[in-house]
Write a structure and sequence with these properties.
This protein is an alpha/beta fold. The protein has 8 helices and 11 strands. It is globular.
């Protein structure tokens, strides 16, 4: 009996430690809202490790097991009613900070919410998608910040660009974002990523070719995909420009309002084009008629 009791105590200790994983948060937001974690969400990514900083700069988190939304309030005197949900990149192996991007949107009168999402952790991508959709739905509730629910869009870079495009096509038509701005997104999973760690993270090490086809966002496009602006660089060696071009072609073929701007240089991260990129985004949102109050 004593042995059985000791075993039960040991098992309880294991269960407790698994449910009390350490989580981390980025700094600088006006508000941090935790939507859920693996114990409260519908789907789990089955991550058992504590969340960890990927580098000393604390600009990227790995082993994410919780979903947090970081709110950056639009400048009151400029508030356009637009809201944007930001999905940082990280190759599905970590979640980078979207602080600087969020601050810029807020300075332009656009309420920004960047998302620390649960990584797919070897194929558990339903949890990642659940976080992305949940963040869009949450930002629409923030009318107290002047957000117009009909003017909430999505953006993201690299793997986050994949998520932005994925959400644009996966949500029900009546819920789809008002716009999408994928930056150098990893759209196709079949041509450039067949042996890369990001594909293993997204679909698991035993994924088949059909899994990659199904997760390639150009194959999800319909006439109801929201207006989309693609921004990338031609000298990107991490995600070749053909990936975005494939998506752009699918958007046009289905009659979706779409624009694509390819800078000649800047690499993965568009390191040389901040000022021009910002102008293009604002002009495009104005062209859509979203900046008018």
């Amino acid at each position: 009996m004593k042995k059985i009791f000791a075993l039960l105590v040991l098992m309880a200790g294991v269960t407790f430690s698994a449910s009390a994983q350490k989580t981390l948060s980025f700094e600088g937001a006006d508000e941090i809202v935790r939507l859920w974690d693996n114990t409260t969400a519908k789907y789990s990514n089955y991550e058992t490790k504590d969340e960890q900083w990927r580098n000393e700069k604390k600009s990227s988190i790995k082993h994410t097991s919780s979903c947090e939304v970081y709110i950056f309030k639009a400048a009151a005197e400029k508030n356009t009613g637009i809201g944007v949900v930001i999905f940082p990149g990280g190759g599905f192996l970590s979640v980078g900070s979207g602080t600087s991007t969020a601050k810029w949107y807020a300075s332009q009168g656009i309420t920004a919410a960047f998302v620390k999402y649960r990584l797919p952790n070897g194929g558990h991508n339903k949890a990642t998608l659940e976080d992305a959709i949940g963040a869009v739905r949450y930002l629409r509730t923030r009318t107290d910040l002047g957000v117009d629910p009909a003017k909430v869009g999505v953006t993201g870079s690299s793997a986050g660009g994949h998520i932005a495009a994925w959400v644009s096509n996966t949500m029900a038509d009546e819920e789809k974002p008002a716009f999408a701005i994928p930056l150098y997104p990893s759209i196709t999973r079949t041509e450039f990523y067949s042996t890369k760690p990001c594909n293993y993270a997204l679909m698991g090490r035993n994924y088949c070719y059909q899994d990659a086809v199904d997760m390639s966002v150009q194959n999800m496009v319909t006439p109801n995909t929201p207006p989309t602006l693609l921004l990338l660089c031609d000298d990107d060696r991490t995600v070749p420009s053909h990936s975005s071009a494939t998506y752009y072609e699918a958007l046009i073929r289905h009659g979706v309002k779409a624009s694509m701007h390819i800078f000649p240089s800047g690499g993965h991260g568009m390191k040389k084009n901040d000022e021009e990129r910002c102008k293009i985004i604002l002009d495009w949102l104005d062209w859509l008629g979203l900046t008018k109050k």
